[in-house]
């Protein structure tokens, strides 16, 4: 069971890293050079909101899986 948990941890880790890199916060050209978004609050919608929620779920899965691996070891 331990090898399965380690493989699952590697897959969840890779997916979590990918999800974080897909987040597009500050990806505009002005954000590269330190520009601001003029302080306007914008809500997440559509794909951005789904990606955000999936990233949170992946983070929770990552920590739960890490906790289970520690308990089993």
Q: Specify the biggest β-sheet.
A: none
Taking pLDDT < 50 over at least 5 consecutive residues as the criterion, the unreliable ranges are none
Strand-residue proportion:
under 5%
Radius of gyration, taken over Cα atoms and rounded to an integer in Å: 17 Å
Helix content: 55-70%
Inertia-based shape: elongated
Protein structure class = mainly alpha
Describe this structure in words.
This protein is mostly helical and 73 residues long. It has a domain at 48-73. Helix content is 70%, strand content 0%. Helix 1 (2-22) runs antiparallel to helix 3.
Provide a quick synopsis of the model:
The chain is mainly alpha-helical. The protein has helices at 2-22, 29-32, 47-72. The longest helix has 26 residues, at 47-72.
What layout of secondary structure does this protein have?
Elements: H1 2-22, H2 29-32, H3 47-72
Helix pairs in contact: 1-3
Give descriptors for this structure.
single chain, about 70 residues, elongated
